[in-house]
Amino acid sequence: MDECAQRIERILRMNEEVIEQHLTASRAIAHENPWLSVPLTMPQLKTLLFVNGTAGTGATVGSIARCIGVGLPTVSGILDRLYEQKLISRHEDVLDRRITRIVATEGGRSLIEKLYHASRVRWRKLLERLDAEELQLVEQAFDVLSRAARRNLHE
Q1: H-state helical runs in 29-131
Q2: Are residues 96 and 79 in the same domain?
Q3: Which of 65, 67, 88, 145 allows an S-S link to 75, with CB 3.0 to 4.6 Å?
Q4: Per-residue confidence (pLDDT) for residue 30, from 0 to 100
Q5: Domain identity same for 124 and 134
C-alpha cells in the first residue's frame, strides 16, 4: 500500500474513533440527544433528509426511491407515514400534473434543524477542547476537505 493509501486508511480509522467517542458520550445523555430519540425509522429519516434538501422544488417519488435505494411501493409507504406525522406535504407539479412533488413541512424542517443543531453542539464541545494551534490545524484540514468536496460536485 502506498503512503497516500496508508494515510487515507489512518484518517478513516480516526474518523471512526471520533464517531465512536461521540456515540459513547451520546449514550450517557441519551435523553438529551435528539438523534437517539428521533421518532422515525432510518428509511423515513433518509427520506426526510433528502426531501428537505430539495428546497422549494420538492422531490419526486422516483427520485426519493433512487436516493434511498428502495422501490416505489416502499417509498409510498414511507411517504404515507411521514405525511401522517405532518413532516411532509404533497402537491402536483406545476408543469406536469402527473408528477407529485414532496416537500418538507415546517415540522419536518424543524426536526431536521433540531438534529443539525444537536450535531453542531456536540462538535462545538469537541472543538472547544482544542487550543488555538490545534483549531487552526483542524480549520485548515476542513478547508482542504471543503475544496475537495466542491471539486467533486463539478465532476
Answers
A1: 34-37, 42-52, 61-68, 72-84, 106-127
A2: yes
A3: 65
A4: 57
A5: yes
Q: Looking up cell 482544542, which residue turns up?
A: 130
101/144 same-domain check: yes
DSSP 94: S
Summarised one tens digit per residue, pLDDT across range 41-98 is 999 999 999 999 887 788 999 999 999 999 999 999 999 999 999 999 999 888 888 8
Kindly report which listed range (2-11, 28-37, 46-55, 82-91) carries the lowest average pLDDT score.
28-37
80 lies in which domain range? Answer: 33-153
Count of domains in the chain?
A: 2
Cell of 86: 405532518
Which is nearest to 83 in space by CA: 67, 61, 98?
61
